[in-house]
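Justification of resources, computational component.

The compute hours requested in this renewal are based largely on the per-chain cost of generating structure records like the one below. Each record pairs the submitted sequence with a full C-alpha cell output. That output is archived, and it is also reused by downstream analysis tasks.
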Amino acid sequence: MDTYKILEIKESVFENNDRQADLLRIDLKKDKTFLLNLMSSPGSGKTTTVLRTIEALKDEMNIGVLEADIDSDVDANTVSKTGVKVIQLHTGGMCHLDADMTKQGLSGLGTKGLDLAILENVGNLVCPAEFDTGASKNAMILSVPEGDDKPLKYPLMFSIVDVLLINKMDSIGFFDFDLEAVKERVKKLNPTIKIIPITAKTGEGIDEWADWLRTEVKNWNAN
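The structure output for this chain reads:
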C-alpha cells in the first residue's frame, strides 16, 4: 500500500501562468504599451543590444527597461545612463521570469506613457523559453561565438520567439559558424521567424531591428 501521493503539478502551473500572461497582455494593450521579452544566454550581448535599441528609438518612443538577474544591478546601472526609466529585478535564484513576476516589475517601473518596455530576461536558453511573460512579442539573441548548433540543442527557445538577432557578426571570421545552416535549422523549427544579423557593438543591422520594432509597436497600438 502506498504511503504517499505523487502529484503532477507542472501542467497546472503552466496553465495558471498562461492565464496570468493573457491578462497582462490585455492590460498592456489598454495602456498602449508594447512589451518586448528579450532572451539569450549570458554574454550574447543583450545589454549592448538594449543600449543600441534605446539609441535608435529614444527620440520617437518613450522607453522603459526591466533588467532581470539572479543578483547584482550592473545592467540596470549601465542602462540608467541613457536616461530612460529602468528597474532591476532580482529573481531570488530563479532562472526565468513568469507572468506574475513580470507584472510586478512593470508595476514597479510604471507603464504610464510608455510606448515600449523591454524586458531583458535572465541569461538562459532553457527556463525563460518555458514561461510566457505576457510580452507582446518575444525576441532572442544568438551570438556567433556560441556556435551554429544552438537551434539543435535548444529547440524550444528558437520555436517560441518572433525574431532572432544573430549578434557579433563582426567576429564570424574567427569562428566555425555557418550562418546559412543556422537560418535553415531555425526556419524548420519556426517558419515565420524574422532573422536579423547584427553587430550591437558597432551598430551593424540595428536599423533593420529598429524598423521591425517600429512596425510591431505600431501594429500593437492599431489593433
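Confidence is low (pLDDT under 50) at residues 4-10. The radius of gyration is 18 Å.
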